[in-house]
Amino acid sequence: MPYRLEISLKPDLGDAEGEGVRRKAANYFGIYADKIRTVHIVTLDADLSPDELTVIQNEVFTNPVTQVSSYDPLPVEFDWTVWVGFRPGVKDNPGGTAMEAIEDILHRKLPADAAAYTSKRYCIVGSKITHDDVNRIATEILANDIIQQWNIFSSSQWDMKKGVGIVIPRVILDHTPTVTTIPMSSDAVLRQISDERNLALNPKDIPIIRSYFLDPVVMNQRKKVGLSDPTDIELEYISQARSDHCNHNTFRGLFRFRNGDTGEETLIDNLFKTCIQAPTLALKDVKDWVVSVLWDNAGAGRFDEDHYYVITGETHNSPSNMEAYGGAITGIVGVYRDPLGTGKGSRLVLGGYGFCVGPRDYRGDLKPRLTPKRLLDGVIEGVRDGGNKSGIPTTFGQVLFHPGYMGKCLVFVTAVGMMPARIKGKPAEEKTTSPGDLIVMCGGRVGKDGIHGVTASSEVYSEHTPAGHVQIGDPYTQKKMHDFLLEARDEGLIEFITDNGGGGLSSSIGESALYANGCEVELDKVPLKYDGLDQWEIWVSESQERMTVAVNPRNIDRFLSLSRRHAVESTVIGRYTDTGKLHIFWKGKTCAFVDLDLLTKGFPQWEFEAFWNPPEKRGLYEPVIGEPSAYGPLLLDILARPNIASREWITRQYDHEVQGTSVIKPLVGADRDMPSDASVNRPVLNSSRGLAFAQALIPQYSAIDAYHMTACTIDEAVRRIIAVGGTVDHIGGVDNFCWPNISHDRLSNPDGRHKAAQLVRSCMALKDMCLAYGIPLLSGKDSMYVDGYLTGKYGEAHKVSALETLQFSTIGLVQDVGRCVAMDVKLPGDRVYVLGITADELGGSEYYEHLGHVGLNVPKVHPEKFMSLYKALSDVIREGFAASAHGIYRGGLAVHGAMAAMGGNLGMTIDLGKIPSDKPLRNDTLLFSETPGRFIVTVSPDNTEKFEARLEGIPCACIGLVTGQPDYIVRDADGRTLIHVPVAQLKQAWKKTFGDLK
Amino acid sequence: MTDVGTLVLTGYGLNCDHETAYAFELAGSRASRVHINALIDGSVSLDGFQIMVFGGGFSWGDDHGAGVIQAVRMKTHLGEQIISFIEKGNLVIGICNGFQTLVNLGLLPGLDNDYRRRSVALTVNDCGNFRNDWVTLRANPASNCVFTRNMDILELPVRHGEGKFFSDDATLKRLAENNQIALCYAAADGGPADGRFPENPNGSLLDIAGICDPTGRVFGLMPHPEAYNHFTNHPQWTRQKEVLKRTGKPLADKLTPGVQLLKNGVDYLK
Description:
The complex is a heterodimer of chains A (about 1000) and B (about 270). Helix content of chain A is about 30%, strand content about 25%. The two termini of chain A are about 40 Å apart. Chain B is of the alpha/beta class and about 270 residues long. Helices cover about 30% and strands about 20% of the residues of chain B. Chain B has helices at about 15-25, 35-40, 70-85, 95-105, 170-175, 235-245, 255-270, and strands at about 5-10, 30-35, 50-55, 90-95, 120-125, 130-140, 155-160, 165, 180-185, 210, 220. In chain B, helix 3 links the parallel strand 3 and strand 4 (about 90-95). Chain B is globular and about 55 Å long. The termini of chain B are close together. At the A-B interface, helix 1, helix 2, helix 3, helix 16 and strand 25 of A face helix 1, helix 3, strand 6 and helix 6 of B.
């Protein structure tokens, strides 16, 4: 019999959670409630005695100091109550831990069908609040129909006895698991079935698939195991393996690149091989610190003789766009499984993020599924809970606002881990599966999660239909698994490990079986969240928090006992073989039998048309703008722009110091409020070495040319590492491409050829920069369909495509963390230097954007010139001659000089006449040009001689002073004061944009 | 020199175990990370240890209140063992999630020698959100807390969403009278924070950051001493270094205040 326990804070205690909702309602919609209080509800679906109910209520769910609770509805005052609970099948993390606690305190195991479900009701007080207002709060703040159900009660409707009623969101699938044979009498028939079943088989792949299954040798072999036409599991396996997500068909495609300037046509066969693999392999040969690249879940570099670091990056865009919190937490928790599945397993040491969203205060006519405000709040909270609850410091990140991301937002997540160089004397970065090894699935259970939308679209919704396509990551379950697997690793129990992400078991087993050359899987052994899944669903489900591990049979008892110690579920579900076959059984009967090398059998390459028209020919030009006269107000306005303004409210929500390794934090300076150029951590606590980590994201330049967007992005990410004390000798990169659809279609994607050309040029720049700077690409991913359709004012649908976007992450080795520097100016009297030459490069700049222009003169990177500067700066930082160092990034010198001054809460004078430039430039150009390759460095007067001597031959000039009088003063070449603003006022402008958020 | 063994709990979502063990080693003890279940199934015994650490993290995801389910599990399986561990004169420290667990177990504040009653709470921060920042703290010189002995003003990081110390007035009064309020949030100059945000980061009553039991041997605090285990952990170390360099001094290589706090406990037992 079900019971519903309501818990709330004692009436005289403030309710921060309810207050947060009240603030959001006011902030989002101008709906002003007098008071909102929350009631937490635990619904227990189990047979419990009255004594047991009392124990559970008092010992687990009610804090006698702060809370009251009752199995009847609590008498909390309201005009409206909104009840919100999960839909069936949505991961209810607190429901799971509630069951653990109940079983603990009752000293008995409850039956398998017993469960606890959590939900909440929000008691809204406000005499002016209408039903429409409440509906808005319910649907646009509290609940998302993809994962939640809700109900609204007015005070007059409220039944004191019944309350919200008893809702049990149990999944009930009245279905017998069935393997279906797919007829393929013709290509057309198979294509039709592929469409109907949402298999997403590429039409060009269909003849290859058919010819395989029609091959007499294959047919004969299949007959012996009782199979004829392909089964649904087999086609799902092929579909997953051939998907763009798993196989990177776009990057491995054939590009016909036509240059509109020269008329020249070039064929580029495989961007991955030519622009990513080739330079990385070339660099691996010359950089002895590169340990492992291009094959594992993450690339590895040497930290010291005994430790390697690993890094990878991912995106989780589409799910986040539908359900921001769930998508983002699943994204960050998911990327953390990649290092865990790298080598024989790596411990997570830090994470990063990047959010690209529509303008937070968007007031236009387009109607995205989630408003940009709500979406951003959701992704912030998702990455917060995913990172914090994993015990992994989130040390760096970016947020970028642009209307192009209203079609689909971007959520980048990056993970860094550490592994010992050797485990029981064997190289830790190596792993393989061998015939006879057992296949073990560890962690969470399998449900209808993340299956390609088939379930969602082909089934009629009922109150017990699982909401499977958007998930909620469970960092608690994963953290337990993380701790367990690292202990198992250290005991030498792991032969091979990989994560279950996209494609689920189909990918993790399919790929790991390639090493042994075969596998047998007993699908009926896979532990399920609920009965009734078809075999193919178990095989491709993307249920989270799972790893696939190969364990030698002699170690399995120890492995499973360690798993029990850590309260982690691990199940042997098959073994690796050397038969060359992927062989899947269901209760002893074969349901899939496919040659593992099928996927290498001549599947056709994807092809793309790319047409490059240079920016001048596309009608771009430099705007005609006279020189401003009010530079002070201009600078204040630019500092307040959303893409420049302080994001302290986000950074403070992210634990960036757990593990005790923090050296350069994401926020630095006298008031601990300025964003640092890069983070530095000391991942091995008794070592003085560190890892510098930074990321860059400047898609605005793609409006002119994605080649230069890419070059500038990489240059910025490199400079960030140099600025804190890294060196160009040891920087690894991670490329994360997010691109709009590049397949040309006259009606649906008329500019596809241009977007394809931008991708080609971006990849060319990636290759050029990586070779020039010596950056091996330790990891990388791509997400190719960043487009969305939004409804406009009149019901018309607009296609909205994102800017061509690359997030580039850099990781650098720091020999001695005690020599790191930060960006804040330190002491009055220090000299201010600018390193690097400023050019007339305002195209795509924040300044032009502020004035409503794009421009033409996009910033350009000259790596051969910049490299000597970066080396020299690294040297002077290591020798201790730089008191502060800060790169000049978006917004230019005016903005970043201000940042350095704000960091120290000190004044600064800048003489524009002294700035090294390639030709005489106007003051606004000197102040706001975003020319890469530049830094602001402050130097103690005692060190200026040595500093200048070390920078002999490098473009560098002393342009001003750090002053005790906290004013930011800029003069032009004639000594005329252009800017004279108190630093406190700069800070106020920079902080006010998001100042009321916390 | 006596060997002092420190047991640092791990498992179930706890996450500061590595650095906590490391900091206790710097503090001069032998530190072991021990899974909660290893204590429960008896494969590791408390007997070999003199300090028991309930560390930071998100035990059981902090669902149903921070530290609540951890307290349920510990109380159900180990409650009396821990009380007898304390009665033998050993030390227990709870940091962040561990502090939350100690108050839910009733080990703190331990008024009237009752180590089973919950009389104080750590509840949701007034700012409504998780917050990571550094705070200035002032130790109470009149407290007999062994960990804060001889400490005055120190800085440590806080990282929590539920750190607001709450209790009824009578209990607060007794805690103050007994000098069980060992550590308070303070203004940058060491003066009282008086509830002001962000100096008092969570709205704790009486600016309470840490309390001890009447014996001074059970201590809980929200800030993280183990996260200040190296001079570069301080948020302004590059500024401090620059100032010292100009006066010809190196950045002092002595123990950080974070490690010193733990060492006070270790030294007490030596």
